Amino acid sequence: MRHQDVCEIAIGLVVTKKYPPHAFHASELIPPYSDILKALQKNPNYSVEDIIQKHGLAPYQAAEQAAASLNGSAKSDWPGILHDSYTKAVLAKTFEHAAKKLYEGKDPDYLKISEQIQENTDDDIKGEILADVEEEFVPFQKCGYEPFDTHLGGIPTQGLIILGAKAKSGKTSLAIGKIAKGFVQTYPKKDVAIFSLEMINSELKYRAKELGVPLKLMKRMKAWDGMFSSSEIITLVSKEQINRISSGENELGMVIVDFADLMIMEEEMSEAVMASIYRNMAKLAKLLKIPVLLLSQLSRNGYVQEGLPKPYHLRYTSLAEALAWMIVMLYNPSTDWSDLSKIPLPKEPGYGYLLVWACRGGFKKHDGPGAIQVEWDGKTGWGDKATGWQPLVKTS
Asked: Residues near 304 by Cβ (< 8 Å), separated by ≥ 6?
């Protein structure tokens, strides 16, 4: 139903006294119906003669006839229907403006478009009666990486995943060679966006090939290299997703950013600036309803004496703990720390651990935080299979 038709019905329901004037928002109506509603809200004695005299006979007749045509559906949630119709009309105008910009060879505001798409499609905008909500225990999805799928149930359908480790621990090889590869294998109609802030794309391709990612799967991975801020990444991903939706291509199903610290200049690095990165990456996940995997370095100080790396060892901010859906740390007892007396995990040559400290959806397969034992090779990084699970006593 056109927005104009809904506006006519709304005013018709008011003038025929089936709805009170304040049931609708004038800002969601088009003229002259918005002016009629404002007048009715301001003056309860505003008569039919006043409407016809000041706004014309045609809009009054159209509204009256529209309301009369409803029959039994007059009891529907017309304020809600008007709101939905209004947001769709706003979205249509936004796309119309964006199309004009594109024809002129200019870039529209992709972030604004994405936000309005979310507002138009997200049922949570209007709120829901909790008793009426369909239950869903945890929004997990398989990711194609067996250690996660077996011991965690996968990864979130949307949310920020932080993968933390010290330098040279295999973060990139795990993210690209295992998680991205497994994801596109699992979901043939979903692609992965990769922002490599550390390597140029040619180096990333070489590394992916070295890790056993076949060319046919690399075609499902779109990579950007360069130095981007978190806000720029939101804009670029939003633009890419909109273009894919409009062209009928595979949509992006996951974003990988390697790594957090390189989104800001060293002289600008602070608690507040780093916090904005975690906040924006969480916002991107919510905006596009996809998982965002953010690689992050650990603070150089503090974790060596404590044995295992923990969430608060992420550089500069504790906000990561509040915003992340899942926090995973990489740990190899053979190479990371020499004081094994403080470490509750067995040291076995050729094996390392994925320390899962936080999982907002709950630990479905095990009780509480734990360490997934995985094969580790210095050349190829982390293996494909999990060989066990060790519970962790959370001290952070």
From this structure: 337
Single-letter code of the amino acid located at 135: E
- 3-class secondary structure for 106-160? CCCCHHHHHHHHHHHHCHHHCCCCHHHCCCCCCCEECCCCHHHHHHHCCEECCEE
CATH of the domain at 164: 3.40.50.300
Q: Is 181 contained in some domain?
A: yes
Q: Looking at residue 98, what DSSP letter applies?
A: H
Domain stop point among 53, 86, 119:
86
Tell me the pLDDT tens digit for each residue of 360-376.
Answer: 888 888 888 999 999 98
Contacts 24+ apart (CB under 8 A), 124-129: 126/80, 126/83
Which two three-digit tokens encode residue 87? 């947001």
A 10 A CB-CB count for 77 gives 10
- Residue 75 sits in the same domain as residue 162: no
- Domain presence at residue 386: yes
User: Do 239 and 368 share a structural domain?
Assistant: yes
Residues whose CB is less than 8 angstroms from the CB of residue 277 and which lie 6 or more positions away in sequence, other chains included: 230, 260, 263, 264, 294
Tell me if 202 is assigned to some domain.
yes
Residues 6+ apart with CB under 8 A from 306: 342
Instruction: Dump pLDDT digits (tens) for 254-277.
Output: 999 987 877 765 546 666 777 788
Query: Domain range holding 77?
Result: 3-86
Total domains in the chain come to 2
CA-CA-CA-CA torsion sign (55, 61, 64, 65): negative
73 in a structural domain: yes
Q: What is the pLDDT of residues 81-117, one digit of tens each?
A: 898 888 888 888 888 888 888 888 887 777 667 666 6
On whether both 186 and 287 belong to a single domain, the answer is yes
Which residues are 389's β-sheet partners?
Answer: 372
Backbone angles phi, psi at 285, to 5 degrees: -60, -40
The secondary element (H helix, E strand) that includes residue 208 is helix 201-210
**Both structure tokens of 213:** 């990612």
CB 114 within 8 A of CB 238: yes
My answer on whether 153 and 244 are in the same domain is yes
38 and 144 together in one domain: no
